[in-house]
Amino acid sequence: MKNILFLVSTLRNTGPTNQLSYILKYMDKELFKPHILTLSEEPKDSRKNYFEDELKLNIISLRLSRIKGFFKAKAKIRNFIIENNIDLIHSQGLRADSLLSKLNVNTPRISTIRNYPQSDYPMMFGKLLGNFLAVKHISALRNLDNVFGVSDSVSNNLKNEYGLTNIQTVRNGVDISKYKPCIDKIQLKKELSIPLKKTIWISSIGKGSRKDSTIIARAFKKIHEADNSNFLIFVGDGELKIQCQKILEGINNTLFTGNISNISKYLQIANFFISSSKAEGFPNAVLEAMACGLPAILSNIAPHTEIISLNKKSAISFKLGSTQSLVDAMENIVDINSNISTEEAINLIDTQLTADKMSRNYQAVYQELIH
To answer: How far, in Å, CA of 44 to CA of 68, rounded?
Structure first.
């Protein structure tokens, strides 16, 4: 049995943490023994309890601030590696990747990269700090043995923009035991107090502006003015929520759920999913929606068009930032002659993008790298 160390900053309830949970949930425990080492105190929205109670894993936290981590983290990580006979280290995130890149150990060191550093970090932290962090992250990735992009789009960006040669792709997956079509959609609509006879559109409001949710609000307003048989659900509680509410003021056919734990139920009663994101790696929200049987309308950024390229009957794209282009896409996808279907969305996930397949792909990597 080989010991695999997963190094992360925290187990905050985010997309990357969800993907980590999938790797571990479907890991062959007869071949691998996973260890999780977190660097900082867990936040309020941590999924640590899930990892411990459901996945039966032991979580070790260094509980170091960034200042203490600068002086103590490398030594503590090195000691952990030695004491637990670690055979391979898998990190994710800027802080974990940076520390791992500075460790002088013979153990294979790999990372998963989930974004476009040159655009994502400036969008999140401002131009000056964001560009600095992008350079720092790329420098760390260069010093690791292998880097895995969550999509071909992410991998190609690192190759083309930064000349990285140690990059491969393992696409994100979705847990189809949780995200799956609903057997009785009418009953679930009644349970959630959702109109029974309307066309239901659903999207997520992210924590930052990169989701560009106001485009969806404006497009829905235009659609609603022409036909009030539509209903829009916004899931989440991001910074654009108030702006979207102002745009849709006076329109009753909308629901803002805020942060919820049962998002799969809302996906199951919807007809279509929309993502207007300016930047993604390989979006969990899109995969979750399609696993529930929702054809998708996606902004034409590279990770979205990559999803469409895998099955052109599962989703369509619209021009990033264009309200009219989104309106046109919404009208086209509901057209009776549209070839975009629920069955094709489900088929794409089931055949290519399950969490189990993603985990098995990483396990094959571990076996290849451990001598």
So the answer is: 21
Domain count of the fold of the chain: 2
331, 246: one domain: yes
* Residue 220 domain boundaries: 185-352
**DSSP per-residue letters across 301-344:** SHHHHHHHHH-TTSEEEE-TT-HHHHHHHHHHHTSTT----HHH
Instruction: Say if residue 48 is in the same domain as residue 157.
Output: yes
Q: Indicate which CATH number applies to the domain containing 338.
A: 3.40.50.2000
Question: Model-level pTM?
Answer: 0.94
The per-residue pLDDT for range 102-135, each reduced to its tens digit, is 998 999 999 999 999 999 999 889 999 999 999 9
Neighbouring C-alpha atoms within 13 Å toward the C-beta of 246: 6
**Residues 205-231: tens digit of each pLDDT:** 977 778 899 999 999 999 999 888 999
Q: Tokens 């660097």 sit at which residue?
A: 39
* Tokens of residue 173, six digits: 């997956």
My answer on whether 151 and 275 are in the same domain is no
- CA distances from residue 247 to 235, 262, 297, 299 in whole angstroms, order as listed: 16, 26, 20, 20
